[in-house]
Amino acid sequence: MRRFLLFIHTGRRAALSAALTVLEELRLRNVRGVVVAQQVEEILGLPEGFAPPRLLTFLTNGGVDIAEAITSQDDLELGVVLGGDGTILRALEAIREADIPVHGVNLGHVGFLAESEVEDLSVTVARLLDGDYEIEKRSTLDILVLDADDQPTARHWALNEASLEKADRQKMINVAVEIDGRPVSSFGADGILLSTPTGSTAYAFSAGGPVIWPEVDAMLVIPLAAHALFARPLVLGRSSVAAVEMTFDNREGGVLTLDGRRVEEITAGMRIEARLSHQSVRLARLAPTPFADRLVEKFQLPVVGWRGRGPRTR
């Protein structure tokens, strides 16, 4: 039997109603729905009347498979995510080992990862079940954390960005930046951001970085409010490794945050190394919408005066 993962923003009524619609569509096509155990607990713990009663019946009467964790052994075909970009990031963390494509149904606000709208949900599910979609790959970051003796202490990954920021709002942190084994700059700052092209429309965009098209295989390094003459964003290629060191003169620690969700304390002398990962995230897209169109739609950019010729052929 075919199996689809369902990942839900459990705090939104619209997402819970949409989950019921998806599960009913899957059942009609003899496809088994799978829900992570933690999400089932969250839904069952909601106040009475918040979740549709029929959804609760699905979850408690064997209408879905409940998985403690999602692994490569689960034989899942696709993940359907109901929420905004934050929910998609949570889903991607849950399925990292399984490495399955996901399709996001937008119930958030400015979402670049989610594609479909909840109003078209039945049509969306039908197309996903029919395999009527394309796979879009997104680069991710591999992050290695080392202690003051250069011993590895943690490994992380990120789809959007890894940010090293000051822990004390009243003080800066001092960092040294290294690219491909060579020192490039050192300065005091609020922090420094390591971003993928996907993250270039998120935190990196707010920090003054350029928007990079998703298919560009690149990594951004962006100082945050740096006290330095040279504090411009850097764009690195696939083969480059960026390192950020918390110099030994730091009296206060810093905080490393991955995709705005996972957090680790960084102290003086510690080092963070970032490179583009060999493992991409796969998004199931129903329509090959040009990224320029998504940019205009999400940021509501003015395009008055465009003549509409498009690119000339050579």
Entry summary:
This protein is 20% helix and 34% strand. It has helices at 13-28, 37-44, 53-60, 85-94, 121-129, 203-206, 291-299; strands spanning 3-8, 32-36, 65-67, 78-83, 102-106, 116-117, 134-138, 141-146, 152-158, 161-166, 173-179, 182-189, 191-195, 219-224, 234-236, 242-246, 254-258, 262-266, 271-276, 281-285.
Topology (elements, then pairings):
Blueprint: E1 3-8, H1 13-28, E2 32-36, H2 37-44, H3 53-60, E3 65-67, E4 78-83, H4 85-94, E5 102-106, E6 116-117, H5 121-129, E7 134-138, E8 141-146, E9 152-158, E10 161-166, E11 173-179, E12 182-189, E13 191-195, H6 203-206, E14 219-224, E15 234-236, E16 242-246, E17 254-258, E18 262-266, E19 271-276, E20 281-285, H7 291-299
Parallel strand pairs: 1-2, 1-4, 2-3, 4-5, 5-6
Antiparallel strand pairs: 7-20, 8-9, 8-19, 10-13, 10-17, 11-12, 11-16, 13-14, 14-15, 16-19, 17-18
Helix pairs in contact: 1-5
Helix content: 10-25%
What structural category characterises the helix and strand content?
alpha+beta
Instruction: Assign an overall shape.
Output: globular
> CATH superfamily membership of the largest domain, which one?
Probable inorganic polyphosphate/atp-NAD kinase, domain 1
Strand content: 25-35%
Order of helices and strands: EHEHHEEHEEHEEEEEEEHEEEEEEEH
Supply the number of structural domains. 2
Distance between the termini: 50 Å
Number of strands: 20
- If you compute it from the alpha carbons, what radius of gyration comes out, rounded to the nearest whole angstrom? 22 Å
CATH architecture of the largest domain: 3-Layer(aba) Sandwich
Number of helices: 7
Average residue pLDDT: 93
Q: The biggest beta sheet, please?
A: 6 strands, parallel
CATH domain topology of the largest domain: Rossmann fold
Strand order of the largest sheet: 3-2-1-4-5-6
Q: What low-confidence regions span 5 or more consecutive residues with pLDDT below 50? A: none
- State the CATH class of the largest domain: Alpha Beta
